[in-house]
User: Which sequence fits this backbone?
């Protein structure tokens, strides 16, 4: 439940409703004037300018710059247009007003901008509360979070960790979140800082060797997205609260390098991301954490671009990851088209791309010891069909796979519960629970 203004919902309820009402009133105030020049000259110019600028934004993002493989959704383009219209109306009103009126016009323009940004946020469910919009909070240094090396808990073969675990007295109620630099020692890949979630049980002695979930955000995006928009710490703490402090260790890593880069989660001319995720990340974990080892205890997951990456790791690095969770991923890694992707990553070598492309690998190989879940939004007209396609291919390749459809589109309305609802399955797969 919300405990203060920072925890009030920004995507439903009173706050977005108030923003909508005030924003619409501000837009109406900007549109109305008693000045005849406004109606005959300035207003038409403002509307035309806003329309042209909105079209320019769409063409720039979707056709020229193409920083993302997906085109901007129609309703997002509309609300971008509203933002631009609010700015244009305010600027075009200034010459017709005195200083007090100019201040009011600028304020009204700002309120329309807030309205548009609020609606875009509602579409993606990116910042469910103001607290999440402020960025990660309550992080602790990794050294303080890990503490000293402890003796480890023995788990008989064939037993899940929860079957032999007993929470000691004084175990913390919540886990810790830390940032960590995971270098590309073998790959040479320069990743942004990762986030490390350690559950309460990690503070126990003897220390249970907890399984590991490697988690990735989408593109554009950053590791902190799972901490803020994904509300990962709360999600994992709630799970740990139901399992005597046990939960997976989560490494939220960066497979991109920056928000607007997309090296496609493969070893190519764009970078050796596969090597980074398959070798550098586990090697770093072995050197800095006490964790369970082996593919049976390591899982990989992500949303959108990160979901595609999770599938890529499952088929191209099965020695490392025996379980994957692909949330709203693509049927193949892409920069917008097959040709553009192959040219950028492999200098036009189609065979090199097919060697690592998940659909091609699934057609050639069998994976009877790999399990996965595909999650898609029922309203996601782009990625839901792709999820169905890859699910069928994975099943044919012998994987133990499931398909889960959740209400919503290509947004956190699906991504957040996509992980949360599959945590019990994931915990069982990686040896945490029976």
Assistant:
């Amino acid at each position: 439940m919300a405990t203060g203004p920072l925890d009030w919902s920004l995507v439903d309820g009173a706050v977005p409703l108030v923003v909508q009402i005030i924003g619409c009133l501000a837009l109406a105030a900007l549109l109305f004037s008693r000045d005849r020049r406004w109606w005959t000259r300035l207003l038409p110019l403002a509307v035309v300018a806003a329309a042209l600028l909105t079209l320019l934004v769409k063409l720039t993002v979707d056709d020229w710059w193409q920083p993302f493989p997906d085109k901007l959704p129609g309703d997002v383009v509309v609300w971008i247009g509203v933002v631009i219209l609010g700015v244009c109306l305010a600027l075009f009103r200034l010459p017709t007003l005195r200083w007090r009126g100019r201040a009011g016009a600028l304020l009204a323009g700002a309120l329309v901008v807030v309205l548009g940004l609020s609606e875009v946020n509602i579409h993606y469910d990116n910042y469910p509360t103001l607290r999440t919009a402020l960025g990660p909070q309550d992080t602790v240094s990794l050294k303080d979070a890990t503490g000293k090396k402890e003796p480890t808990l023995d788990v008989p073969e064939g037993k899940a960790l929860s079957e032999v675990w007993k929470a000691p007295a004084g175990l913390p109620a919540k886990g810790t979140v830390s940032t960590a630099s995971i270098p590309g020692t073998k790959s040479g890949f320069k990743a942004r800082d990762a986030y490390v979630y350690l559950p309460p049980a990690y503070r126990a002695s003897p220390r249970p060797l907890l399984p590991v979930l490697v988690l990735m955000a989408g593109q554009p995006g950053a590791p902190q997205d799972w901490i803020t928009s994904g509300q990962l710490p709360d999600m994992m703490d709630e799970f740990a609260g139901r399992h005597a402090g046990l939960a997976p260790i989560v490494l939220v890593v960066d497979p991109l390098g920056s928000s607007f880069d997309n090296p496609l989660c493969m070893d190519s001319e764009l970078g050796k991301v596969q090597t980074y995720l398959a070798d550098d990340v586990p090697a770093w974990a072995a050197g800095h954490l006490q964790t369970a080892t082996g593919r049976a205890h390591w899982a990989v997951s992500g949303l959108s671009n990160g979901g595609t990456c999770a599938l890529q790791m499952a088929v191209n690095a099965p020695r490392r990851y025996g379980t994957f969770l692909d949330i709203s991923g693509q049927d193949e890694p892409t920069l917008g088209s097959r040709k553009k992707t192959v040219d950028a990553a492999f200098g036009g070598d189609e065979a090199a791309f097919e060697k690592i492309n998940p659909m091609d690998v699934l057609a050639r190989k069998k994976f009877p010891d790999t399990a996965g879940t595909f999650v898609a939004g029922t309203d996601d007209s782009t990625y839901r069909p792709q999820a169905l396609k890859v699910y069928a291919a994975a099943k044919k390749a012998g994987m133990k796979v499931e398909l889960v459809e959740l209400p919503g589109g290509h947004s956190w309305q699906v991504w957040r519960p996509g992980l949360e609802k599959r945590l019990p399955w994931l915990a069982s797969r990686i040896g945490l629970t029976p």
Remarks:
- Residues 137-429 form a domain with the Rossmann fold fold (CATH 3.40.50.1820).
- Strands lie at 176-180, 194-198, 212-216, 249-252, 267-268, 271-272, 298-303, 323-327, 371-377, 400-406.
- The longest strand covers residues 371-377.
- The chain has a mean pLDDT of 95.
